Amino acid sequence: MENLYIYMLAALAFLAVADLVVGVSNDAVNFLNSAIGSKAVSFKTIMIVASIGVAVGAMTSSGMMEVARKGIFNPGEFMFNEIMVIFMAVMLTDILLLDFFNTMGLPTSTTVSIVFELLGASVAVALIKIYADSSKSIIDLGNYINNEKAIEIILGILLSVVVAFTIGAIIQYVSRLLLSFKFEEKPDWYSAIFSGFAVTSIMYFIIVKGLKNASFMPPSAQEFLSTSPFTFTGISFLAFTILSMLAIKLFNAKIYTIIIIIGTFALAVAFAGNDLVNFIGVPIAGYDSFQKWYEAFLANGVLPSEFSMEGLAGKVPTNSYLLLIAGLIMVLTLWFSSKAKAVVKTSVDLSRQDEVKERFEPNYLSRNIVRLTIGLNESINKVLPNSYKNWSKERFIKPNVVVKEQDKPAFDLVRAAVNLMVASVLISIATSMKLPLSTTYVTFMVAMGTSLADRAWGSESAVYRVAGVLNVIGGWFFTAFSAFVAAAIMAFILYHGEGYALAGLLVLAVILLVRSYLAHRKSSKIMREEDQLEKAESSSTQGVIHESASNIANVIKRGNRIYTSAINGLAVQDLKLLKKNRKQIDKLSTEIDDLKDNIFYFIRNLDEPSVAASNFYINILGHLQDMTQSLDYISKASHKHINNNHKKLKFSQIKELKDLDSELETLFATTQTAFESRSFEQIGAVLETKTEMFDLVRNKIQKQVERTRSEESSPKNTTLYFSLLLETKDLLTAMMNLLEEYYQSHDSSVKPARLNSRVGSDQEE
To answer: Where are the extended beta strands (E) located within 292-391?
Structure first.
């Protein structure tokens, strides 16, 4: 019998490692976003600092393991076999749930998942026990669940959303008033005091609340930290302020960058100390449970269904070697997981200082929240004195610094420092109180609060940013509900299916994990191989001509592929190919929309004598958009026809479309070569085929007219065929207009001027 539970332990160990990898891959960005978003230091430096922080946090997280042992349910009410069912259900659900949310691209939190999975699984097993005992009713459910602690944990998670947002907004607003956006021009003692406050806040909660009970801390140091916290705080503030001033004066240190490095380390420590329980707390509790039962089994032959798990209620220190191994796996995952390296854009985009293409669409709730907030702001402004309003307005004026798009940070160093400081402090407080606070919730809501206080949500972006925050929060609630229900179902299956259910569910978990890994690797490979359209940075017409050539070649190449796929999909009625083709044209259309959204910034950065370049750039984008609209219609009309199971096109129609596609492919290939090689003189040869190409399309239309009058019997086929030919004609028109624009504007004798060369010279000055 004990073999089943040995298999369960092996499964828990495997799931713990998998959960560490999957969980860290998802959660790593919680403490990397601020440092990466501000571009304070190189990515390699950030990773080294974060790795050290994760290792330290993992070694000091023992106390948090009690949450998995007794934080949600009363272990004394369950027998060993029931406890193992609960733990297995939780770990299996956690893996499958993370895989599902990763596949769907929905926001999730490992802390919320583990808490509600423990709650769901324990409730399911408790209900099975109550149903089997005629003397008990649903009212007795409270005996099995640690109601007080569970409610405290759940309320703590929900409250953290409001607290993190509010405190982040307040601290950022005060910091900005004191430092302004021109913080680098302030006296050195401003930076020194800010550094003293920030570093003291971080170190107090990391050392006093996080490390004071660690085994490597000397007893004298532990006693001092416990009895004199205010003395320690005062000495720390004074010491760090003096050290910061010396670093600035003697070494010309970039103090805000140092704060960000320390904050990243602190948040990594807090993350590992708080979230390690999410990944290995349940397996360690399962191992402890097995040890206690097996000792009783060897001594007295106690069966699993007869052994009460009261022993889990006591405090048992976690094996340091297990914590060390877990920390090592977390660090390796940080470095080698492609998901961990791919920074999650959601929180950075929603807190970005400048205007970008928004990722979320506004909704009824976001519009009304913004409208109410504007009204509230106007009411407050009526009360505030004009002198304060004028003074505070000056503090929020951003310096006009021209930098290349790829070098532009999402926000400045002050906001990044506040993000890290506030988030690490809040998470450390919760960890010291044994509350498994969600690092995802805290870091995200702090970032949202600081961006609001920093006036990053302007009138043109507020409804989109608020909608994004609401979508993310809605995803969190869905996570909680899904985790509870899924774990309850999993526990029910394991309780009744025993070994067979365990084997089946483990196989399912492995299949889904492998599928997720392969799908992610495939999508990453496609993203690396797929050409991306680039924003123009040139300052003259000739510069834009050369710079846009790669974009034109890109669109021509992808447009050729999309058109051919649509015709081939129609010919063989391949619905899968046509569906994939729709996604490709949607992606291309989105990229061109992004370029059009960048026109404002492109024109604003042009030299005065070179404004004519904007006319050329706008015209080119207009022609590209016309081309993609024609391709979009062709792709979607083809997909709709096959998806609705309409009649297949006649052989003669397919043959004519194939002939047309062949001619277009030659035209596209020649045009692509001209743009890739920057041989714009070759465009004249392409333009000479204009009349021939239009005559070809007109002949196809004429043939279909004759067929319709004599032999065509399907209105749907006729409509589709005419639509494809007319849209092909529009596609050719847009393409020829684009080529004529290039042919007329290109002047090989003029050397192209580039905007980024002007930026470089400005930076050198």
So the answer is: none
Q: What's the pTM value of the predicted model, to 2 decimals?
A: 0.69
Measured over the CA atoms of residue 551, residue 552, residue 554 and residue 559, the dihedral's sign is positive
The answer to whether the CB of 625 falls within 8 A of the CB of 592 is: yes
- Name every residue whose Cβ is closer than 8 Å to that of residue 198 and which is 6 or more positions away in sequence: 259, 262, 263, 417, 421
What does the CA dihedral 464, 465, 469, 475 come to, rounded to 10 degrees? Answer: 40
Question: Can you read off the two tokens belonging to residue 47?
Answer: 């990773």
CA angle 69, 22, 444 (to 5 degrees): 85
Cα torsion through 140, 141, 142, 144, rounded to 10: 110
Query: What pLDDT sits at residue 762?
Result: 37
| Pairwise CA distance, residues 164 & 583, whole Å | 38
Q: Shortest CA distance to 739 belongs to which of 681, 676, 663, 665?
A: 681
- Using CB atoms within 10 Å of the CB of residue 138, give its burial: 0 to 12 exposed, 13 to 18 middle, 19+ buried: exposed
DSSP string, 610-656: GTHHHHHHHHHHHHHHHHHHHHHHHHHHHHHHHHTTPPPPPHHHHHH
Tokens describing residue 448: 């949202």
The pLDDT tens digits of the residues spanning 138-178 come to: 888 888 887 777 777 777 777 888 888 899 999 999 988 88
- In terms of Cβ atoms closer than 10 Å to its own Cβ (0-12, 13-18, 19+), residue 518 is exposed
Instruction: Tell me what the pLDDT averaged over the chain comes to.
Output: 78
Closest CA relative to residue 432, chosen from 181, 209, 697, 762: 209
Give the span between the Cα atoms of 410 and 355, in whole angstroms: 10
- Residues 282-301: what's their mean pLDDT? 85
**Structure token pair of residue 160:** 């953290």
- Measured CA to CA, the distance from residue 239 to residue 228 in angstroms comes to 16
More confident residue, 509 or 752: 509
What digits encode the pLDDT tens for the residues 449-504?
Answer: 888 888 887 777 788 888 878 887 887 788 888 889 999 999 999 998 888 888 88
Confirm if 587 and 581 have CB atoms less than 8 A apart: no
Instruction: Provide mean pLDDT across the span 200-215.
Output: 65
- Distance between CA atoms of 752 and 166, rounded to whole angstroms? 50
Residue 12 has pLDDT above 60, yes or no: yes
The arithmetic mean of pLDDT across residues 4-28, rounded, is 79
Scanning the structure block, which residue is given the tokens 């956006």? 181
Q: What is the DSSP letter of 397?
A: P
Structure tokens at 4: 């089943």
Q: From CA 756, how far away is CA 744, in angstroms rounded? A: 26
Q: Give the type of residue at 534.
A: E
First to last CA, the chain: 78
Instruction: Give the three-class secondary structure for 630.
Output: helix
Q: Which amino acid is at 577?
A: L
Q: Which two tokens stand for residue 234?
A: 């005062």
Q: Which of 304, 276, 284 is nearest to 495 (CA)?
A: 304
**Please, are residues 414 and 179 in contact by the beta-carbon 8 Å criterion?**
yes
Cβ atoms within 10 Å of 754's Cβ, excluding its own = 18
25 touches 334 (CB < 8 A):
no
Query: What is the per-residue pLDDT across 390-422, written as a single tens digit (0 to 9) for each?
Result: 888 888 887 776 555 555 677 888 888 898 888
DSSP annotation of 252: -
Torsion angle (degrees, nearest 10) of CA 270, 330, 448, 190: 50
d(CA 492, CA 668): 60
CA-to-CA dists, residue 749 to 582, 675, 745, angstroms: 42, 18, 12
Residue type at 126?
A: A
The radius of gyration of the chain's CA atoms, rounded to the nearest angstrom, is 31
Give the dihedral sign, CA 12/19/113/96: negative
Instruction: Collect contacts of 185-191 with beta carbons under 8 A, ≥24 apart.
Output: 188/245, 188/248, 188/249, 189/245, 191/244, 191/248, 191/255, 191/256
Strand partners, 73: 145
Q: How far apart are CA 522 and CA 516, in angstroms?
A: 10
